[in-house]
Design goal:
The protein has 14 helices and nine strands. It is α/β, with parallel strands linked by helices. It is globular, with a radius of gyration of 20 Å.
Length: about 375
């Protein structure tokens, strides 16, 4: 496999800086969740408010994740959401956590994120995953094919094609040598061109060893989905570090982990809020996706023994409680995994609870309030 170049990317565009007393940089992963009685418009407005709070309080980046055919998740179009958010923020890094590459033509993603880079220069991350971000039938509808394994199996090839479009460096004789992703580097080489050749750094996302090894071999930053694959976190990070080869992108490994965490004013309220996300996940895994239930519905739900076991196991990996308890849990997780950055996702029924959680976590770490 060819090397990922990214000649205009520097490690300092990838590595964050820890603020306050946080052990590592803190960031935000937003699923733009839609609760019962709430609209997608309200969820998207909350997403902007979370990004603005994160920027003001010194979180390093704000990412959104691509999901499809899930009523409770309004983030089916990361590029659209990021463009909207870029217009309402000034400094925070914005990115996809991630775009599911097999669902798209690489040229389309290069164009979308080249456009975002032109809108918010030096602030855009392109995180890529190889899962569909949905069920098999929806993936088939997205890809216009029933050969669902094709996209995942071809992921390294798709990645290299996307990178070539971003860098505008297909070799002479390649069928795409005369095709250019615009906005992009070609505008800097056109007569009279002044377009910056810079492009968003690529991150690989994963919940197993495949993307960990690939990110290491290519010398790319790596994001691991600890929030739904906690048992694989340490092995995947070890595999990434062991496989890492320095590149023009990074001279040393850099890994963040997605962490489900929610802080509230007291333990009982935190438990009420995270139970809504757990019930929502139970329904999703049971083939009954819907809007995120209210805390009242979640508390009153009659769990079967099997359902209770699922929910209890799910809640074990959510850091929740008072601000001090969440801070202690995040500190322990950073130490245990050696992660270079923690990306916090707060799933709850209401936007108010999510905003409150990020504010409490920022306070617990003494983050600035500019």
């Amino acid at each position: 496999m060819d090397e990922i170049r990214g000649d205009e990317i520097q490690g300092d565009e990838i590595r964050g800086t820890a603020r306050g007393t946080a052990p590592v940089p803190l960031s935000v992963l937003d699923l733009v969740t839609v609760g019962q009685g709430r609209t997608a418009s309200e969820a998207l407005r909350t997403g902007v408010e979370i990004a603005q709070l994160a920027e003001r309080r010194g979180f390093h980046r704000y990412w959104v994740a691509e999901h499809h055919s899930m009523p409770g998740v309004a983030s089916s179009s990361p590029a659209v959401i990021l463009a909207h958010t870029a217009a309402r923020t000034e400094r925070i890094r914005l990115g996809s956590g991630g775009v599911m590459l097999p669902n798209h033509a690489p040229l389309v993603i290069a164009e979308q994120f080249g456009t975002l880079e032109a809108m918010a220069p030096g602030r855009v991350d392109l995180g890529l995953g190889r899962a569909p971000g949905t069920d098999g039938a929806t993936a088939a509808a997205l890809r216009r094919t029933d050969r669902l394994n094709e996209g995942a199996d071809d992921f390294p090839q798709q990645l290299m094609e996307l990178t070539r479009f971003l860098d505008d460096d297909f070799p002479d004789g390649h069928p795409y040598a005369r095709i250019h992703a615009v906005p992009g580097p070609v505008q800097a080489t056109a007569e009279g061109g002044v377009q910056s050749p810079a492009r968003p750094p690529i991150w690989l996302l994963g919940s197993s060893g495949f993307s960990a090894r690939l990110a290491g071999v290519l010398g790319l930053p790596f994001a691991f989905a600890h929030h739904f694959s906690a048992q694989n976190t340490v092995p995947a990070l070890e595999l990434y570090r062991d496989s890492f080869k320095p590149s023009t992108v990074l001279d040393a490994p850099y890994a963040l982990i997605g962490v489900a965490a929610l802080a509230a004013d007291d333990e009982r309220e935190a438990r009420r809020q995270v139970l809504t996300g757990a019930l929502s996940m139970l329904r999703l895994r049971s083939g009954r996706p819907g809007l995120v239930p209210t805390p009242e519905e979640a508390e009153a739900y009659a769990f079967s023994p099997m359902e209770r076991e699922f929910v209890d196991n799910w809640l074990v990996n959510i850091v929740h409680g008072t601000a001090d308890e969440v801070r202690s849990g995040l500190d322990d997780l950073a130490k245990r995994t050696g992660a270079d950055e923690l990306m916090i996702t707060a799933n709850a029924h209401s936007g108010e609870a999510r905003l409150r959680s990020y504010g409490l976590i920022a306070d617990a770490y003494g983050l600035p309030d500019a």
